[in-house]
């Protein structure tokens, strides 16, 4: 989990969420909830990014949209042979 530019937006949104929670609960509990949300969102986005990278492989074919394997599209390059 590395820090990226868009994390500033996430942190600012979560701080505002924490400020909204303070009237309903203790500030310590609100901070704990926001910290857990931050790491939960970071883990979810990391897993989703890994899933997308695993599904795309070397890339996506511009003709048919399938996964490119070994620099060749199985649908487009296979039909030309």
Q: Helical percent range?
A: 55-70%
How would you state the average pLDDT, rounded?
Answer: 86
Radius of gyration: 21 Å
Q: What fraction of residues sit in β-strands?
A: under 5%
- Find the structural class using helix and strand composition: mainly alpha
Tally of separate helices: 3
Give the strand tally.
Answer: 0
Distance between the termini: 44 Å
Oligomer: single chain
Low-confidence stretches: none
**Biggest sheet overview:** none
Shape estimate:
rod-shaped
N-to-C series of helices and strands: HHH
Write a brief caption for the model.
By secondary structure, the chain is mainly α. It has helices spanning 6-21, 27-56, 76-80. The longest helix is centred in the middle third of the chain and has 30 residues, at 27-56.
Give a written overview of the molecule.
The structure is a single chain. The protein has 81 residues and is mostly helical. Helix content is 63%, strand content 0%. It has helices at residues 6-21, 27-56, 76-80. It is rod-shaped, with a radius of gyration of 21 Å.
Map the helices and strands.
Layout: H1 6-21, H2 27-56, H3 76-80
Helix pairs in contact: 1-2
